[in-house]
Amino acid sequence: QVQLVESGGGLVQAGGSLRLSCAASENILSFNTMGWYRQAPGKQRELVAFITKSGSTNYADSVKGRFSISRDNAKNTVYLQMNSLKPEDTAVYYCNAQFMTRYYWGQGTQVTVSS
After folding, report:
1. pLDDT of residue 40
2. Is 28 exposed, middle or buried (0-12, 13-18, 19+ CB in 10 A)?
3. pLDDT grade, residue 69 (50/70/90)?
C-alpha cells in the first residue's frame, strides 16, 4: 500500500512563504506523475501542480509564477514551494501520486494565509 505523508503546512501572513513536503513510501519514479491538489471549504478539490516522471511540470493558472514543484528522488520526496501567498491560497493541500489508473492520496496538510 502506497503511503504519502505531507508536512509543512501552517499559518502564514499574506506575502509569506511555505514549503510543503510529501514523503512517499515507494520510489517516486515508479509513478507517472506526482502532484499537489488543494481543497478550500465549500469548494471542489483542484489541481495545483504536478511533475511527471520525466521531470516536466505543470501549474494551475492561479499559482503560476508563485509556486514551484520539485522532487528529491533519493529521498522519495516531492516539494511544493509556495511564495507570495494570498488569502485565497488557504486550503487543505493534498499530495497525489498517479500510476496508470491508480491514484494515491496523502492525509492533507492545512495551509492558512491571513490577510
Report:
1. 97
2. buried
3. very high
Helix/strand/coil for 101: coil
Q: Is 11 helix (H, G, I), strand (E, B) or coil?
A: strand
Q: Find out whether 95 and 106 touch, Cβ atoms under 8 Å.
A: yes
Dihedral sign, CA of 27, 28, 32, 38? positive
**Surface-to-core class of residue 4, CB atoms within 10 Å of its CB (0-12 exposed, 13-18 middle, 19+ buried):** buried
Task: Give the pLDDT confidence of 19-47 residue by residue, as tens digits.
Answer: 999 999 999 999 999 999 999 999 999 99
